[in-house]
Amino acid sequence: VLLIEFKNVVKDYGNEVLGADRLSVRIDQGEFVYIVGPSGAGKTTFIKLMYHEVGATSGEIRVNDYDVSSITNKEVPFLRRELGVVFQDFKLLPRLTIFENIAYALQVIEKKPEEVEKRVNEVLKQVGLKDKAQNFPNEISGGEQQRVAIARAMANRPGILIADEPTGNLDPDTSEEIMEILEKINQDGTTIVMATHNSNMVNEHKHRVLEISAGKIIRDQEGGGYENE
Ligand code: ADP
Ligand code: ADP
């Protein structure tokens, strides 16, 4: 089932280099896709176009049933319920506990309190952090903070999990733990799109690789490595 489709997408920031240059790609439900390429290649732009953090200059973007390229402001929050997003720097709210950080994501979409509590406990269990629920972000390790961010992204059961350099601030062992959690989430049926510079992870956990350079896809390889052999 086709889930994400880019057709001739251009993003012009007004710089010399396009953020996306006639980018076309199709991603099916259940896939795990890495986005690789040098700094400034357009990885983050590709990701931000998907959840309409930036708008395309031209071209078509479809995500699930949404025509993202012509989406209205009113529809954007609904699109974003179908996409969980995880960042390099975790982006947890420092004054809220781990439990509250995750609950907040559900409260804003008006889930009932009983439902919120049940779901927060489920996702905390999924990432192995039930015993840290009452801690604050600065009381736990970087790897644990990223697990909380993943739990928060998954709280609403999105069909797609987007991760922009999720292991960028983590040591190799912790990165491996995060990858194992992402693999499990993918095996449970969630589509994953992950931008990364982490060549070890790409080479050890083989998946489809999209390599971007100057806003263009220059390689699309099933089970590929970080670099073309
Ligand atoms: P990557 O994630 O691969 O490092 P980006 O998508 O962040 O690449 O950037 C792609 C290109 O678009 C770069 O040339 C970058 O400078 C430019 N760019 C990204 N975001 C903006 C922005 N908000 N304003 C202007 N230029 C931007
Ligand atoms: P990453 O390497 O993770 O893609 P960057 O450090 O390139 O992140 O970009 C951080 C932020 O700055 C992003 O929101 C991006 O859109 C913005 N940005 C990147 N390049 C430019 C640019 N040339 N002009 C303005 N904003 C930019």
Automatic annotation (TrEMBL):
<comment type="similarity">
    <text>Belongs to the ABC transporter superfamily.</text>
</comment>
<keyword id="KW-1003">Cell membrane</keyword>
<comment type="subunit">
    <text>Homodimer. Forms a membrane-associated complex with FtsX.</text>
</comment>
<dbReference type="GO" id="GO:0005524">
    <property type="term" value="F:ATP binding"/>
</dbReference>
<dbReference type="Pfam" id="PF00005">
    <property type="entry name" value="ABC_tran"/>
</dbReference>
<dbReference type="InterPro" id="IPR017871">
    <property type="entry name" value="ABC_transporter-like_CS"/>
</dbReference>
<dbReference type="InterPro" id="IPR003593">
    <property type="entry name" value="AAA+_ATPase"/>
</dbReference>
<keyword id="KW-0813">Transport</keyword>
<dbReference type="InterPro" id="IPR027417">
    <property type="entry name" value="P-loop_NTPase"/>
</dbReference>
<feature type="domain" description="ABC transporter">
    <location>
        <begin position="4"/>
        <end position="229"/>
    </location>
</feature>
<keyword id="KW-0132">Cell division</keyword>
<dbReference type="GO" id="GO:0022857">
    <property type="term" value="F:transmembrane transporter activity"/>
</dbReference>
<protein>
    <recommendedName>
        <fullName>Cell division ATP-binding protein FtsE</fullName>
    </recommendedName>
</protein>
<dbReference type="GO" id="GO:0051301">
    <property type="term" value="P:cell division"/>
</dbReference>
<dbReference type="InterPro" id="IPR015854">
    <property type="entry name" value="ABC_transpr_LolD-like"/>
</dbReference>
<comment type="function">
    <text>Part of the ABC transporter FtsEX involved in cellular division. Has ATPase activity. Essential for cell division and viability.</text>
</comment>
<dbReference type="InterPro" id="IPR005286">
    <property type="entry name" value="Cell_div_FtsE"/>
</dbReference>
<keyword id="KW-0067">ATP-binding</keyword>
<dbReference type="GO" id="GO:0005886">
    <property type="term" value="C:plasma membrane"/>
</dbReference>
<keyword id="KW-0547">Nucleotide-binding</keyword>
<keyword id="KW-0131">Cell cycle</keyword>
<dbReference type="InterPro" id="IPR003439">
    <property type="entry name" value="ABC_transporter-like_ATP-bd"/>
</dbReference>
<dbReference type="GO" id="GO:0016887">
    <property type="term" value="F:ATP hydrolysis activity"/>
</dbReference>
<keyword id="KW-0472">Membrane</keyword>
